[in-house]
Design brief:
Order of helices and strands: HHEHHEEEEH
Strand order of the largest sheet: 1-5-4-3-2
Number of helices: 5
C-alpha cells in the first residue's frame, strides 16, 4: 500500500512536470520556423540559435517589441538604443545589451566578418543564464 501511494505521488509529479514543459519549453518546430523567418527577413544580421529559443519563450507582446529591435538592428543598427556594454576586454569581442518592452533583453555583438550577430534574447528572469552563455561564447571567440 505504501509503495502504491508513492507510485501515485510520483505519477502526479510527472504529470505536473510534463504540463510545465508544455507551457514553458518552445517546441522544436516553432524554433525552426522562427530561425527560417529571421534568416529570410533579416539579411544584414545573423541570429544565434540561443536567441531564437529565447525569442520563442517570450510572450506575444514582448515578441513584437523584440522583433522591432531585430528589425532596427538589420536596417539601422546605429539607431538602436543600447543600454550598456556587457563584455569587452583583452581578447574578447564587445557585447551590447538592449532593453525593450519593460523587461525584455537582447544581446548582440558586431564582428568584422559576420556583421551583427544577435546572441541571446530573453527577459529579466533569463538574464543570468543569458550572460553566462555570452561569457562562455566570448571567451571562445
Amino acid at each position: 500500500e505504501q509503495q502504491q501511494a508513492e507510485i501515485r505521488s510520483l505519477n502526479e509529479k510527472i504529470k505536473e512536470f510534463e504540463e510545465e514543459l508544455k507551457t514553458h519549453a518552445p517546441k522544436g518546430r516553432e524554433v525552426d520556423m522562427l530561425a527560417k523567418r529571421f534568416a529570410a527577413l533579416y539579411k544584414n544580421i545573423s541570429v544565434h540559435e540561443r536567441a531564437v529559443e529565447g525569442f520563442a519563450n517570450l510572450s506575444e507582446e514582448v515578441k513584437i517589441k523584440g522583433e522591432e529591435i531585430i528589425h532596427r538592428l538589420n536596417e539601422a543598427p546605429d539607431q538602436v538604443p543600447i543600454k550598456r556594454k556587457v563584455f569587452s576586454g583583452k581578447g574578447r569581442e564587445t557585447v551590447w545589451e538592449v532593453l525593450y518592452s519593460y523587461n525584455g533583453r537582447l544581446y548582440f555583438r558586431k564582428s568584422r566578418d559576420k556583421g551583427i550577430e544577435v546572441l541571446a534574447m530573453g527577459n529579466k528572469n533569463t538574464q543570468g543564464r543569458d550572460l553566462a552563455f555570452i561569457d562562455k561564447i566570448s571567451r571562445r571567440s
